[in-house]
Amino acid sequence: MPAQSCAHFKKYNIPELPHTMPGKYPPRISRDMPATLDFIPGVGKSVFASSEECKPLISDVYCGRDSKAINESRQRVMKSLNLFRNLLAERMSEQKGKAKTKTGATWSTYLETAMTLQRDNKWVNISKRLGPVPGVEVGDEFYCRAELNVIGLHRQFCNGIDYTKKDGKIVATSIVNSGRYDNDMKSSDSLIYVGQGGNPGVGRTQPKDQKLQRGNLALMNSKEAKTPVRVILTKKISKPLYIYHGLYLVEKFSQERGEFGKLVFKFVLKRISGQPKLTQGLGVVKKSRNSKVPKGISYVNDISQGKEKMPIRVVNAIDDERPPFFHYTTNKIYPKFNKLYIPSGCDCTDGCLDSNKCSCAMKNGGEISYNSNGQIVKKKSIVYECGPSCKCSSSCTNRVSQLGVRFKLEIFKTQFMGWGVRTRSYIPSGSFICEYMGEVLENCSGGFTLDATQCGNVGRFINPSSSPNLFAQKVLYDHDNKRFPHIMLFATKDIPASRELTIMKLQGEGGM
What is the pLDDT averaged over residues 480-488? Predict the structure, then answer.
């Protein structure tokens, strides 16, 4: 949703957002290069550029939202997170050097790092707010409480309930279910949250009755005001992982005897419908019971969160690292000033079977570029597919690459090349794999760069190889501007299941 509308939450209907996860990499600077693809090992970022002269045009808005506002908010959050993680890593390295031990960061180190960024005005979303936080999406994962403060998701370093004033009363903005209280996640959509105070496990205090003040009072007022509360859950593996589960409403609250025999407040929160599906403690759709993923392996069911027809799962059997932080999109993002016109289409109603009569086939030299099985026949400088103005249906043999991912793909952590992509099923030679998505950026030389650092899809994780099994093909169908072709990836050979997908690293100016 546009950044300016985040504070206006009407009927609690939230558009589904793509699953994203934070990683250890700082934002990367795209490299300018003429008409070439460049895949960076282990990062998955690639660029495509054209050195042709650019003309001012106007862009479409992807996903029905203001892409500029979304990207700017997301980039601000990513920048602050990466600044925090880089500074934290430096301080941890200094501490280890002085102590000559391998101990991790202490609570004070997290706090000092966050406060350093605050003094440097590097925090984002400074004002407390109700509802969504610009640049933060459902399913986002964070490594510590300090990160929640830096990006404005939860502005409490220790307390589990954060709040602000509305109409003269305090109401809750967010809660963290850290596991220190006797909370109960009944399902992915229902949480029984115990109020704050009186817990001897927190602060080594004596058990005592909880009072209806501060966070407890704010949650009660949230029930009466029907204001949304952000919920962050904690998944404990080797270290805590904080997962943003989305917006909830406080439906009930009561006072009863808790586990230490003292009176506690219990609040029943229900997740607002219309948000991405999550499951207890995972932050993403949970894997099925018969999944073959071994116990102990880091697992995400679908990083695209339903945006692709086939789920794109993530597996890490190497360590506890997460993929880089990015916005998953199935639409190429063009500059705001670009206007791409829809070309005229063919009049075929028979699925473009007669290439002699199909105007789109004529652009391809009088032939359809795919066979009846949807496999590309041969590589060309540009393949023209049928587009929005064509009268043929979506089942036309000349609409292969625009229909999205058809094979089961998996992002996985490789031994030496960082993240990679492999197939979970057999792929015949010539089959379409995926489009390489990203944001089209104008470079200083008047050309364009396709950058997948901030926004992209599964293609951003594909690694280069001297013996690739994929090739990149330029395709046009929804516009006819050759400066902005779609970059489609196809199989160069039959690819067995569990084989990594790779592509040749193309060379441009400067040896890139």
Answer: 92
